[in-house]
Model the fold of this input.
Amino acid sequence: MQYRPYGKMGFDVSLFGMGCMRLPRREKADGSVEIDREKAIEMIRYAADHGVNYFDTAYGYHRQMSESLVGEALDGGYRQRVHIATKQPFAVMKDKGEIRRNLEDTLKKLRTDYLDVYLIHNIQKKDWPGIQQMDVIGEFEKFKSEGLIRGIGFSYHGELPTFREILDYYPDWAMCQVQQNLLDVDREVTEEAIALAGQKGCALVIMEPLRGGGLASTPKDVARLYEQFPVKRSAAEWAFRHVYNYPQVSCILSGVTTMEQLKDNIEIFSKQDAAAGCMTPEEKDLLKKVKQAYESRVTIPCTGCEYCLPCPKGVAIPQIFQLYNQGMMFEAFDQPRRSYMFQRNAGHDQPNCVACGACEKKCPQHIEITRQLGLAHSKLDGWYE
Done:
């Protein structure tokens, strides 16, 4: 296993960190879904026994059951060998007392008396002023002074300006966690943010290196590009390679669901050339072509301009089209269906559309939105957990 320094924290972490958001699941008798406890524990312990020393979870993963499962799996001597990162979302921080109670509950679930790093989960631009006003970081600093946490971090999905503002606001961030992969080099926080985190000496953890597993899929045109290249690697390895090429990256999270995926990841991240600066100009050119091939598969020409919003019935039109296009891009719909489940649970899915046509009058792409929403729903509906 390859290891890298974890920012300024004084320890090294495995380049592959096990993400605990997509643990194996099983269906119960009533039709609901739960973590497959035995398989998940086996996988976490296998990872720890084979060089993985970084495990990432969060308050809300697997309907608030992930932390408990990770705690059970790492009990009995494993905890002392690994580093645990978990997160508290701003949405559950009702007041400062609640922030502490949530941490205390997390520590009990994880069966530990400290966290290696504690993150403010998924900071959104709209929430950032409230996080400052509540002085959430100040509360986390109290936890740090009490020895309950050893580092303060944050995770972020979004654009560069807000990321820069957050990173500049607090000088003692131990780490930041961002989405990056070979398709997102021009969006999310971009390559500039990767460089910025490195300049700050902040540990940088990458999430979604496979874009929800999509980049492990190879539609025919993508597969052809990989097959024609003289060096043979799996699609997953190419995607990981794009990320660990950056020297600023401390750890790359991969949410594994099967033992086969876990073993494959461990093998990839144990290779000698899983190193910063590993990619040749020819390899970089290949991945640019791969990116173009994936993006050419988008079928609903939505640009995400949001002129169609607000929908009077709350339908998340651009987000639904994005999920449909993602499924078509990768020829894989599991992750888009899971994401659509959250839109459905929030009442933002297609069945709420009353075909009023207001959105179509405002769409600069002249998309037949009502019809296309029905098409998207037919492909996206059906995921439950």
User: Anything to note?
Assistant: The chain has a mean pLDDT of 92. The radius of gyration is 21 Å. The chain is about 45% helix and 15% strand. The longest helix spans residues 96-110.
